[in-house]
Amino acid sequence: MEAGAGGIEPLGEGLPAELRDYPVQSSVARQEEYSRFLPLIKWLLVIPHLFVLVFVGLVALFAIVLAFFAVLITGRYPRALFDVVLSAYRYGWRVGAYMYLMTDRYPPFAFGDVPDYPARLEIAYPEQGVDRWRPLVAWLLAFPYLFVAGALLTVTGVLTFFAFFTILFTKRYPAGMFDLALVPMRWQQRGNAYSHFMVTRYPPLAWG
Q1: pLDDT at 49 (0 to 100)
Q2: Could you give the CA distance from residue 197 to residue 208 in angstroms, rounded to a whole number?
Q3: Residue 6's pLDDT is what?
Q4: Among 2, 3, 42, 24, which Cα is nearest to 12's?
Q5: pLDDT digits (tens, 9 = 90+) for 72-108
Q6: How far is CA 143 from CA 10, 27, 164, 188, in A?
Q7: Nearest 5°: CA angle at 10, between 43 and 77?
């Protein structure tokens, strides 16, 4: 996905119709040119973020447990808990885009949306409420989708390996390779959001 005039394209642009209106939207803006040698040290630069992600993940897990009982009892996902989990997802999305060599911009130590960062994630809050039974079975219903997403994510890993060399020698991440690597990341994020009953629509089985 190329960066537009403002640096970030609309999150659902270029996706099939069934994905454009799905409650989970994510994007990564591809650079025209990458730093040739930055991929050599990104693994080292990202270490502080990995430590933060451990803490963020624990906080999100606690929020999900609280939301489990809140939805079970009230049929509503408390907005404050939703925002905590969304913040963790956003943080992880930015770090993932950096680790997979999709952007050279160092991820900010921020938990909210960062509109000018090349990697962005949005999940629409379920204003209509959440069925009380969902927390009990959402993880099970999501399992087939997450299994496929996990298998696809190995493709992203392989493409990142090849992207390392294309960037090293040409300073470019080929658009076709970039788009192919992005799809499994999106699948994983949609599956995670559904399994944590943040969305009530099953993730579409569509490529994009």
Answers
A1: 98
A2: 21
A3: 34
A4: 24
A5: 999 999 999 999 999 999 999 999 999 999 999 999 9
A6: 29, 24, 31, 11
A7: 80
Q: How many whole angstroms separate alpha carbon 101 and alpha carbon 161?
A: 9
Residues 6+ apart with CB under 8 A from 24: 121, 122, 123, 124, 186, 189, 190, 193, 199, 203
CB 181 within 8 A of CB 156: yes
Sole residue written with tokens 């969305």: 199
* Angle between the N-to-C axes of helices 175-195 and 79-99, in degrees from 0 to 180, rounded to the nearest 10: 150
Q: Using CA atoms of 37, 41, 42, 43 in order, give the dihedral in degrees to the nearest 10.
A: 140
- For 125, phi then psi, to 5°, come to -70, 135
205 C-beta neighbours (distance < 10 Å), count: 10
Q: How far apart are the first and last CA of the chain?
A: 11
Q: How far is CA 150 from CA 146, 169, 193, in A?
A: 6, 30, 14
Place of tokens 């992880």: 92
- According to DSSP, residue 40 is labeled G
> What is the structure's pLDDT at 14?
77
Distances from the Cα of 88 to the Cα of 9, 53, 81, 123, 167, angstroms: 22, 8, 11, 12, 29
In Å, how far are 29, 176, 194 from 129, measured between CA atoms?
A: 32, 39, 14
Q: Which is nearest to 85 in space by CA: 32, 130, 45, 137?
A: 130
Span 6-34, mean pLDDT? 81
